């Protein structure tokens, strides 16, 4: 018997409707990314089947964090389901702000990519289910590299990346060798910069959680980043993050872009090829790991229904429902969460980036090691990180814009990070 | 004489031209916003489609069907209107007392009221959230948003009204008193008719400030009392270029206030200059 996606969706909805009859509505806080927008249409089937009205509260990423944090911290019960990221999930799970998730056998949790499952767990318990996930990779214009006679390979050396950027850099014709995040923010420039530092053998903190921003590894990494982007990047790079670079790339102005794998699904220019993130030979690697996940805040008055909704929205059946939806299709399914998605021939046919994305996610190494004594690749999964990351981000952007030298910026960053960690009582 | 005439002719051309250039610079973001709202998300980010594109109503359809625009708009109208009315109801008597019956502390009180505007809103975000949600149980209600909008605009309302009232000769009020007019009669029959222009200007500006307020209306609401500010805020995407739909939401959010401003230009200018232009 063929177990079709529609059957699976119906079965999942049936189970959901049987068990959540008590709830009348769910309030769901989401960020306004494309996959979440699509979910609001796809979820009409969920409402039709369960009778549960879904109230969507769409918020800007920073405001969502702020509002959800204050709501969960005060036990307000304002939301039944919340969108959170990989940085928050283990911390909030440990703090008891979100409920552990347990799903039925049909959910097939073993299908979830291990990196995602581990990153959203605390002490082996899953606290948030991934809605879509991403790593980072090189997205380069193969037509330009071919014309320039250079190649970019998986896990290339940074020196070769710089040489390729130099070869395709042609500002007179509006093409810049490389586009990278420069806009200050722990989730903006520091996401990329941290991966570069990792690959140079650096880390945010030592074993005693003292910041190491004045180390030789940080100096080498930031000097390289400032030189690469300053020399071969577009003007005003200190104001560019994901969306700004996406617009530049689709205008044909970027020869190469190293950023979130999700970007590949938005690219509209021809001749794009993919490679795994560059590496300087370090075991931590230079590809990040992130997920937009769903969790149930402790205090939700509709906890049971919220769990059931998450089980449906992060299931294989949901992915099939997006693929079957007349407005979407396989090119619009949420990626980076389940191995089964990448096994679908229909998905492989429309997503030329599929293999590269999955390889990037699988090779990301968020675990704590001797070299990097904290969980997380492009962040540290500690509550203070957003504050530390934001302070350091400003200094790195100042170095990129030329307002400060790299040494001055790192000295100021070290001082700011040290003060935050001392105040937090780490040492 | 000839030089003066020539200079005058030059001025007649130069100043209006300069005024038009400045006005167009200020107007361009609005123009760009409205234009973008009629483009698809894909066309919205392509510079070659800045002026020439196939217009679509897709973003507006999407906004009304999927984003429940009218619910947010009605909430904006309710909260801005009542907050303005309550601010005037408190502000008129307060400004009257300070303008016509000042004490030694009046100036200090006025300065103190203005100083409350200097408090960073973020500093009281957590207590406000905790108190309104866990203690008072009024989080995400029209009452809370009206109260907050009224209170944060009250210093400006009182200052503006005080400035207008100070320009009314005190003798007129005193003459009314001598004729045996009650306090309420002084305000209703003498003060309000004389200061009507100033009160309207104050009301208009307060309404606009309430309509545009985004910090508290975003953070103290979830669904029931969410205003258009929250709708705009929620349409910003960290990963994805959805400028067409964001522009449509923004256009629909600012359109009522722009139309209102267009019809009330004179009063607004008067209000913005705090009664200095007569």
Q: What features would you describe in this structure?
A:
The complex is a heterodimer of chains A (427) and B (278). Chain A is 44% helix and 12% strand. Chain A contains 18 helices and nine strands. Chain A has helices at residues 5-19, 34-42, 44-50, 61-73, 88-95, 114-119, 142-148, 158-168, 189-199, 216-232, 242-250, 303-313, 316-324, 339-343, 345-350, 354-363, 385-401, 406-423; strands at residues 25-31, 53-59, 81-85, 121-122, 125-126, 129-141, 256-260, 272-276, 289-295. In chain A, the strands form two sheets. In chain A, strands 1, 2, 3, 6, 7, 8 and 9 form a seven-stranded mixed β-sheet that branches. In chain A, strands 4-5 form a two-stranded antiparallel ribbon. In chain A, a hairpin with a 2-residue loop joins strand 4 and strand 5 (125-126). In chain A, helix 1 runs antiparallel to helix 12. The N and C termini of chain A lie far apart (62 Å). The model of chain A is unreliable at 1-21 (pLDDT under 50). Chain B is globular, with a radius of gyration of 23 Å. Chain B is mostly helical. The longest helix of chain B has 36 residues, at 2-37. In chain B, helix 4 runs parallel beside helix 7 (142-166) and helix 7 (142-166) packs antiparallel against helix 10. Chain B has a domain at 69-234: MetI-like (MetI-like fold), CATH 1.10.3720.10. In chain B, 74% of the residues lie in helices and 0% in strands. The A-B interface holds A 27, 31-34, 37, 40-41, 55, 57-61, 63, 66-67, 70-71, 74-76, 78-79, 187, 242-243, 246-247, 250-251, 260, 262-263, 266, 268 and B 42, 45-47, 66-67, 125-126, 129-130, 133-134, 139-140, 218-219, 222-223, 226, 230, 233-242.
């Amino acid at each position: 018997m063929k177990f079709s996606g529609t059957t699976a969706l119906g079965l999942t909805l049936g189970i959901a409707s049987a068990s959540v009859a008590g709830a009348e509505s769910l309030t769901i806080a989401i960020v306004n990314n494309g996959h979440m927008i699509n979910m609001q249409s796809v979820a009409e089937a969920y409402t039709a089947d369960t009778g549960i009205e879904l109230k969507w509260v769409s918020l800007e990423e920073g405001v969502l964090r702020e509002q959800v944090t204050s709501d969960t911290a005060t036990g307000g019960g304002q939301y039944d389901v919340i969108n959170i990221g990989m940085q928050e999930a283990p911390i909030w799970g440990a703090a008891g702000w979100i409920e552990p998730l347990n799903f039925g056998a049909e959910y097939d949790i073993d299908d979830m990519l291990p990196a995602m499952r581990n990153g959203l767990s605390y002490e082996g318990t899953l606290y948030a289910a991934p809605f879509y996930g991403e790593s980072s990779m090189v997205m380069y214009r193969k037509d330009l590299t071919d014309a320039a006679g250079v190649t970019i390979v998986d896990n290339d050396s940074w020196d070769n990346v710089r040489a390729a950027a130099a070869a395709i850099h042609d500002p007179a014709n509006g093409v810049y060798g490389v586009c990278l995040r420069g806009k200050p923010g722990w989730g903006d420039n520091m996401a990329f910069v941290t991966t570069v530092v990792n690959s140079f053998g650096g880390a945010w903190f030592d074993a005693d959680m003292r910041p190491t921003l004045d180390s030789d590894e940080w100096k080498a990494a930031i000097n390289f980043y400032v030189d690469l982007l300053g020399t071969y990047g577009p003007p005003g790079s200190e104001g560019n993050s994901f969306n700004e670079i996406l617009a530049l790339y689709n205008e044909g102005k970027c020869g190469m872009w190293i950023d979130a794998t999700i970007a590949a699904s938005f690219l509209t220019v021809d001749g794009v090829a993919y490679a795994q993130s560059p590496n300087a030979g370090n075991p931590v690697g230079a590809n990040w790991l992130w997920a937009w996940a769903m969790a149930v805040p402790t205090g939700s008055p509709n906890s049971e229904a919220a769990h059931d909704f998450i089980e449906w929205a992060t299931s294989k059946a949901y992915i099939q429902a997006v693929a079957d939806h007349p407005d979407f299709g396989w090119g619009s399914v949420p990626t980076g969460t389940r191995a089964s998605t990448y096994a679908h021939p229909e998905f492989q046919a429309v997503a030329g980036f599929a293999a590269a994305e999955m390889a990037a996610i699988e090779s990301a190494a968020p675990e704590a090691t001797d070299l990097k004594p904290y969980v997380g690749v492009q962040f540290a999964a500690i509550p203070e990180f957003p504050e530390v990351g934001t302070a350091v981000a400003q200094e790195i952007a100042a170095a990129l814009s030329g307002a400060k030298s790299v040494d001055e910026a790192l000295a100021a960053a070290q001082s700011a990070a040290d003060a935050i960690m001392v105040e937090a009582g780490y040492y | 004489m000839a030089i003066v005439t020539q200079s005058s002719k030059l001025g007649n051309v130069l100043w209006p031209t300069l005024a038009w250039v400045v006005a167009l610079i200020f107007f361009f973001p609005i123009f760009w916003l409205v234009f973008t709202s009629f483009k698809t998300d894909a066309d919205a980010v392509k510079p070659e489609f800045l002026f020439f594109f196939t217009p679509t109503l897709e973003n507006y359809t999407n906004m009304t069907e999927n984003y429940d625009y009218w619910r947010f708009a009605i909430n904006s109208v309710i909260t801005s209107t009542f907050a303005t009315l309550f601010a005037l109801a408190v502000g008129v008597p307060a400004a009257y007392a300070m303008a016509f019956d000042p004490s030694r502390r009046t100036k200090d009180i006025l300065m103190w009221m203005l100083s409350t505007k200097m408090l960073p809103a973020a500093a009281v975000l957590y207590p406000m959230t905790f108190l309104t949600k866990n203690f008072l149980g009024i989080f995400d209600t029209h009452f809370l948003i009206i109260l907050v909008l009224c209170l944060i605009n009250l210093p400006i309302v009182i200052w503006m009204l005080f400035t207008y009232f100070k320009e009314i000769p005190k003798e007129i009020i005193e003459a009314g008193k001598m004729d045996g007019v009650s306090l309420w009669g002084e305000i209703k029959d003498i003060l309000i008719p004389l200061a009507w222009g100033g009160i309207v200007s104050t009301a208009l500006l307060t309404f606009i400030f309430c309509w545009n307020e985004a910090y508290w209306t975003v953070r103290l609401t979830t669904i029931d009392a969410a205003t258009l500010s929250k709708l705009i805020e929620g349409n910003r995407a960290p990963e994805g270029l959805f400028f067409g739909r964001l522009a449509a939401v923004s256009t629909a959010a600012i359109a009522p206030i722009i139309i209102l401003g267009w019809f009330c230009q004179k009063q607004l200018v008067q209000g913005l200059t705090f009664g200095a232009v007569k």
